[in-house]
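Recall that a protein's primary structure is simply its ordered list of amino acids. Everything else, from secondary elements to tertiary packing, is in principle encoded there. The following example makes that idea concrete.
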Amino acid sequence: MRHNNTNNNLGRKSAHRKAMLSNMASSLILHKRIKTTTAKAKALRVFIEPILTKSKEDSTNSRRLAFNYLQDKNAVTELFREISPKISERPGGYTRILKLGTRLGDAAEMCYIELVDFNEVMLATTAAGETKTTKRSRRGSKKKAEAEAPKKGKTVAEKVTKAKKAEVKTQPDEPAAEAPQAAEEKE
């Protein structure tokens, strides 16, 4: 019975599951993005996040622990050389799962799992200044509309300065001001 057992066995014995997750983690570290099923990606996330957290400190012990999980010398070297300096500021959440839809053969849900700091497309959009959309709510839209209302019309200061300019123009040109009145009388 699986009383309160939260890990997904993925239909494999424990040795096969550990070997598969180790290989997938090594591939993710080397390639920065892999395509797999959603269930395996979720299991891989639980497997690799503690390894990435331990890699922030570059010591012999943390390298040995990483090698114990990954069983791949090249992956450990890549992890400590390129990945750990980029993720050193991040407090967690090193991976991202992007769902792709279902696979044709068996209708399994497919996805990409990738390292967050290594996706050039998403980093370029955030660097270009695009921000997340704000939360939409009725209350927020009223406040936003009230804040934008003065921007649409002229402010009080603009109206006062315009009125002063009109007064200055009409004072020296009094005959010109009378001319429109005369034109109205003719009509």
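Residues 138-186 form one domain. The mean pLDDT is 84.
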